[in-house]
Amino acid sequence: MDSYSDNLRLAVNEAATSSTLQEVDTPNGTTIALFCDSETSASKSRFSVASPRSPYLSMDPGWIHENLPSALGSDMLTMDCLLLASPDSSTSAHLVAQAARSAGCLLAIDVVPHNIIDHADRDEVLRLLFGANLVTVELGTLAQMFGTNCHPTESHQEAERLYNLLKPHLAEQHWVVIRFGSLSIEYSIIYSPDGPLKETDSGPAIRAGGYPSGSEISGSEYKFILSQWKH
Predict the structure, then answer these.
(1) pTM value?
(2) CA–CA separation, 46 and 16 (whole Å)
(3) pLDDT digit of tens for each residue in the chain (231 aa)?
(4) How distant is the alpha carbon of residue 28 from its chain centre?
(5) Biggest alpha carbon–alpha carbon distance for the chain
(6) How many Å apart are CA 129 and CA 124, to the nearest integer?
(7) How far apart are CA 136 and CA 140, in angstroms?
């Protein structure tokens, strides 16, 4: 509950879906994306600045036990790896992941922050990803996780190679969205155990000066993957 709450309520109410919004007496976490344009051919830069006062990091097992059952009836349960940055919330993250697996709920994990290995042990990240049905990750993050260098000119080959390293840690039925490009967001490939399924190119919009939000891109990908899941 803070100055952002009214806008968040409005956005939830405008969404074409039924929803339940639970509010807590804690400030909303805030993340600002900064883009540095260049008039030359040099790559543009993208930075994210996040508030450390996120209620996300104060989720405790008691709150999880009380509120999780209704969430497990959803089409998809989503979380990110920011929970691993705090010992208390890390316990909650694994509790949620295990509950989703037990309930047969599609579990989607976004591997952010993108330098998560600087803040959490790699084995802890892989333990959270174990059994995940959908993982969204940047190519550079995967390279950091598996201790390899990333070669941008060979992004497609690198994506497939790193996907094969990640694959044994996931659920048997899974999809992995790997993002790459100069901003690590222009291109993405969706992999399944059967191979690459779909490729997205947001590069033209970015080069034209427009920056599609990560939520906008992910929403399209989630819709596609949910259609695959239900079949």
Answers:
(1) 0.82
(2) 31
(3) 788 889 888 888 887 777 777 777 777 777 777 766 666 544 556 677 777 666 777 777 887 888 888 888 888 899 989 888 888 788 889 999 999 988 888 999 999 888 888 888 999 999 999 878 999 999 999 999 998 776 656 688 899 999 999 999 998 889 999 998 877 778 889 999 998 988 888 766 666 666 556 677 788 888 888 888 877
(4) 18
(5) 54
(6) 9
(7) 12
Any idea which residue has 């591997």 for tokens?
111
Query: What is the distance between the alpha carbons of residues 141 and 179, in angstroms, rounded to a whole number?
Result: 10
Mutual angle of helices 87-103 and 122-129, in 10-degree steps: 30
Amino acid at 138: E
Locate 207 and state its tokens: 């080069």
Here the contacts of 7-11 (C-beta below 8 Å, separation 24 or greater) are none
